[in-house]
Amino acid sequence: MASRKNIKRLLVTLGIISWLVMLGSSYLYRFGQLNGAPVETYLFLSKVSLIAFIFIVYLFYRIQISMQDVFNILDLLWKVFVTGLIATMASLFSSLLLSVLKENEHGRNPYFLDALYEINLGLIITFLIAAFTVWKRLILYQKSKWLIRLWSTFEYGLLGSSILFFSTLKLFDGIGIIVLILLIMCALVLSVNMKWVAYLNFKQKWKSILLIILISLYLGYFYSILDNYGADSGYNPVFDAMGLITVHSLFLFILTYSIFSILVLLFNLPTSSVFEQKFIEVVNFQKLSQSRNMGQNEEQVYEVLLESSANVALAKIAWLDIMDEEQKVKKTLYFKTYKLEKEEILKAIDHDRVKNIQSLIPTKNEKQKRFIAELKHEIYKSIFVLPMIIRDQPVATLTLVKDVKDGFSKEMIEIIRTFVNQASISIENYRLMQEAIINERYKEELKIAKRVQDSLLPKILYTNDDLEIAAFSKAAAEVGGDYFDTYKMNEHRLALIIGDVSGKGTSAAFHMSQMKGIFQSLVQVNLGARDFIIKANNALSNCLDRTSFITTTFFILDAKKKNFQFSRAGHCPTLYYSASEDKVEFMEDNGLGLGILRDSQFEKYVEVNEYDYKTGDILLLYTDGVTEAKNSQNEEFGYERLRHFLKVNKDKSAEAIKEEIIKTIYDFCGSSNLDDDITTMIVKVK
Amino acid sequence: MVEIKNTIEDDIITIHVIGEVDASSSIYLDESIKEATDKYKKVLVNCEDLEYISSAGLGVFMSYINDLEEKDIKMVIYGLSDKVHHVFQILGLDQLLKITDNRDEAKRIVNGV
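The joint structure predicted for all components is written out below.
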């Protein structure tokens, strides 16, 4: 941009220089003529500098106008008008000066008269070029290849025709007239390009007409000045600028296009309201489509919809009822309307046809239903109701009211429907975006929950000298309801628990954390297995919801007595490998899940068993996720496979058995995902 | 997914549970047991076509144990497959709920014969 400014400055300087050269050479010509010296060179020089001046002014305006990429037609016309005004003032002032100085000696001084003439000439040419460049911009408002080509031809023609200026031929002789006619024809063809007119509204058209008429008046005035300059005062300019075909053509071209423009503008006046309307529709449509990009909320979209629709329909009254999920009106937006008017109109609805607006709202299965009716009202005569539907759910109802009968044409209805559809899309997009944001937040929350839960499962498993213990747990979702833990009650007594909360996911995870709390508290009190289960049931009875329960098996392993006691509360029976008998068995007995009976009745169902253990014995604790793990044929892993597994792997260490069971289960499931949380704990007697 | 069909015969309502009862479909089982126990004193649950029941489904049965006693409602579950029966057993529900093999026996129990 800075370089453009510099170029402009340079052009202004060059323009002034060329003008000064023109004046200087005229003086030299006159001086030489008085002294009888040869003057042809000076005449030639002044003519060249005139052409150079025209060319430089043209370049200046070309840059000036093209700098405005987005331009306002009226602004351009206004600039031409102001240039014309300045030129006219200057020329009027010089005429005044001349008439005042007519009798004075200075008034007849040829140098003074030359200066005045050339000032006039410079200003008029500036005006002509300004108008020419603006006209160019208007003609090329919508460019096409051939149009640009034709215009270039015209410009080169204008420039080329200036050569004739140097010939001795008279302007209207032979070749000059032919060139002029050709240029005029070119100008005529160009002048039919009036597309810009359609983009003006009514008011702008009037203003344009006024400005172009004024420009045409200047044109006439300037022509009369130049054509006969000094005829009455006997002044003879050094050269007659009107002898330059370029100037002549410029006058004619600008005038032709002005006349064409005025006519076209006039003829377009009556239809301009239609174009304006269409333009508003397009703009509104764009507003509705873009609203989601601008991060607008739903209500803003509704507002744009209401305003656009009311404007398109030329409605006197309009409102938009926004519905909540139960399809009751949550909020009403009014367009130049008050609540009272809405109620008045609702009353005026023809009750033979519809009870009220609400009854017009389609139900889920109905397609977009619309409604047009006459109103029994002294002012308001017709009403149009259109529901807005998103995902088969009516979300809003648009009501438009007019003060004329049959006020809603088919075309209007179509456009409003398009608006409503577009607004639906915008709102749906907005909602989807909101949902996505919320989902993202939920995911984050779940991640946190997962981290919390992971911290609830023990990092270290306590053990004693007799036992090696290994455990593994994996939730099917982010969080799960499986639980296991160990606690060293004293030097030789070790408590061990495995549990499974009914249900899945978040609710199960909450109960699992309660179970952890209960285990960690009760186990401190040094209870036996029976008391532990009863107390745990009591504690849980107060915190589990109606349909939830927890199954668990609680072990106390005693290294001193070399035995273990356990109580099973509805949990999957522990798999036990007895090394002395070389047998794998499920330790099935009676027992009831925690929370199933929430009173003292529960105690009746608690059983405790005691076993003596020997080296090589293995306890395999697990949750139902293990036995119910499914393969691609929908077969369950089952109890038999588990029994077989332990039999085969009995000689491995607890850790190795754990690794092997994970591998076996995952191999069994294959590509299918885990349905349930999986937990297993292996205790092996050393 | 689960499908639940209710049939009424004299003063006995039969809830026919078809398919799989998991965490999400257990709500339907809950609803129909609630409805049945609100209106009837004799309730049969036909589980001949119950393929699978999750812990959430068991939780539904469990939650009515106290209600049945308090309101003196007789509810009998019949037609459990071995697999499903085992699930009831492990949890201990077989000790608290009346479970029989077939409909005739179930009917006899609700009629107090």
